[in-house]
Amino acid sequence: MCDVRQDRDDAESATEAARAIPVNEAVGMVLAHDVTEIRKGEFKGPAFRKGHIIRKEDVCHLQRIGKERLFVLSLGPDDVHEDDAAIAIARALMGEGVMIKGEPREGKVTLVAARDGLLKVDAAALKSFNLLGDVMCATLHTNTVVKKGREVAGTRAIPLVVKRGLVEQAVRAAQKGQGSAAKGQGVIAVKELRKPKAGVVITGNEVYHGRIKDAFAPIIARKIEEYGGEIVGAYFAPDDEQFISDRLRELLAAGADLLITTGGMSVDPDDVTRFAIRNLGAADITYGSAVLPGAMVLVGYIHKVHSSKFKVPSGGDSELRTQNSELIPVLGIPACGMYHNTTVFDLVLPRVLAGERIGREELAELGHGGLCLHCTECRYPVCPFGK
């Protein structure tokens, strides 16, 4: 005995497209519903799924399980099968670092990370896309760090048959997102993270003079190494502007492409780290974020100038010198980074490594979801912090 079930929404949207015909006349046509087979004590499930194209060898199987008539699709020129629609919209939503996993199934396509990196979702474009109806896409939160192969989104055509005009509209909506807020990166993209060469200056008289044992260095090292980076140098410094600035310069000379300072970020008279960073020539300095823990964070940038010289081909021994600059991010981490497993540092670091420019607007946006719950067992990033 055969149990045929057809989704009510599919039936309503495909009333004109589906028709019942004898099984032996269905070869080459598209099945409009699942056909369930029950073999007592052996199997119960779909023998054929909706969307399956009936083959000659399927006819005997269908008759054996009691099917004499089937609902099949009769697609018109303006109709698109759910699987074809899903592939079209998935390709339109995809940006760099994202790929399709497997084949579409029942109108659903899974998108996965094609590389390790930072997931970026154009939320405004995604909302516009989902407002269209009959198509949908669900994603992980933007700014989630993902590994290659991780599922980052699922998209599907909801009815069995979608009008071609709507599919084209959905594709345009996705492509519009790629050209605006997503800045050409796609509505869903995974940005590659560079492996940092970090220079660290740990400030504070009490640590510098050995009155207390430092706890910052192993924390920073572990978090940098999680991204495949390395510590090119680490110094302890007293609460002295010039001393801190000098150590940061030495780290730049040693090849650091990321500077991290710890401590000295509050408003006490001895907290001079942020002034030392400014004295180093840092620009676009933003002090303070809408995150707890981490309100007193600092983000700035230093232009590191590189000089090179080359001989003029026809000029004998004469030389020309050229200069180019590299933008080096500076992160000033307040003392909370030593006492809490997860802070604003964990939210900002991967975005910096993805090449994003973090300023006042980006730090302000973190306020929504920027309150840590201080769980007994930290499960970040599987929690609402930073989402």
Could you name the CATH homologous superfamily of the largest domain?
MoaB/Mog-like domain
CATH level 3 topology of the largest domain:
Molybdenum Cofactor Biosythetic Enzyme, Chain A
- What class, by secondary structure content? alpha+beta
Task: Count every helix, treating DSSP H or I runs of 4 or more residues as helices.
Answer: 12
Assembly state (oligomeric): single chain
Helix content: 25-40%
CATH class of the largest domain, named Alpha Beta
How many domains make up the coordinates? 3
Radius of gyration (CA) equals 29 Å
Order of strands in the sheet with the most strands?
17-16-18-21-20-19
Largest sheet: 6 strands, mixed
From the N-terminal CA to the C-terminal CA, the straight-line distance is 50 Å
Strand content: 25-35%
CATH architecture descriptor name of the largest domain: 3-Layer(aba) Sandwich
> What is the overall shape?
elongated
- Could you give the count of β-strands? 21
**Average pLDDT over all residues:** 86
Give the low-pLDDT segments.
1-16, 179-184
